[in-house]
Design goal:
With 263 residues, the protein is mainly beta. The protein is built from two helices and 22 strands. A four-stranded antiparallel sheet has the order 3-4-5-6. A hairpin with a 6-residue loop joins strand 15 and strand 16. It starts with a strand and ends with a strand.
């Protein structure tokens, strides 16, 4: 596990060898009260591991071992904290199904949602600001963007054939006012694409071609978030040469991309 962090300027990167070996991309979130950083990943043997930071690093804990080996991972996990302190963790299981475990003071699950179809990628999950809906997106077996959502019961899966082919796990985030779902993913040509839902689906928009002048092609899936005040969308990805790139939307326009590995 490696980390870099921005506090007006960039710090790091630093590595955490004491946390062991990772077999996937990490999934990171901060609890709604800001007290804890949560990091989940696939460890050796397809196990779900967690470490968390509360001024010092804690863990890692092997949750799959604690669950008797149930729910082995075949993808990176995706973690979502809720405003009331729950943690929701989703992943693609070895059966290709969507799996979930959730923390409400104790861990529940893991649950196999075999009725929700087959995943061809890591899922990307988020929750609406009012906590009424859990949204989960993934790359379908036919390379289409696919969504399920939970609002007391599960709905979907819905496949968005009109949004074209995707070539990576998607990254989903919801605007702070709850009005818009933003989904970023890699195109077959390695460009950064965005589709967004604001009552109806829009896109896909090829940001690499239309906003970034063809610079900073993707060699990984993107990772997106929105700042707490809603003013800025941040998107990070791995570019050529395993470098870290960022593009960001603020003030009504896209900026970047910037190659941070270049210095």
């Amino acid at each position: 596990l490696a980390e870099a962090w921005y506090t007006g300027n960039w710090n790091g990167p630093i590595t955490f060898p004491q946390l062991g070996t990772m077999n996937s991309t990490p999934s990171v979130a901060v609890t709604k009260d800001g007290s804890t950083q949560l990091v989940f990943w696939e460890g050796p043997g397809g196990h779900l591991l967690e470490a968390w930071y509360t001024g010092v690093w804690n863990g890692p804990v092997d949750w799959t071992a604690a669950w008797g080996g149930r729910g082995l991972l075949a993808s990176a996990p995706s973690v979502v904290p809720t405003k009331d302190g729950e943690q929701l963790v989703y992943w693609r299981g070895t059966d290709g199904h969507l799996w979930e475990a959730w923390y409400t003071g104790v861990w529940n699950g893991p649950a196999d949602f075999s009725n929700l179809g087959t995943l061809a990628s890591t899922p990307s999950a988020t929750i609406t600001p009012d906590s009424t809906q859990q949204l989960v997106f993934w790359q379908g077996t036919d390379n289409r963007l696919t969504e399920v959502w939970f609002s007391g019961t599960w709905h979907g899966p819905v496949e968005f054939a009109n949004l074209g082919s995707i070539s990576s796990p998607p990254s989903v985030v919801v605007s702070t006012d709850g009005s818009t779902q933003l989904v970023f993913y890699k195109s077959p040509a390695g460009d950064l694409l965005e589709s967004w839902y604001s009552g109806s689906w829009n896109g896909p928009l090829d940001l690499t071609a239309s906003k970034f002048s063809g610079v900073g092609g993707l060699t990984s899936s993107p990772s997106a978030t929105v700042t707490p005040d809603g003013s800025t969308q941040l998107v990070f990805w791995q570019g050529p040469g395993a470098s870290l790139w960022e593009g960001w939307y603020a003030g009504g326009a896209w900026h970047g991309p910037v190659d941070f590995s270049a210095g």
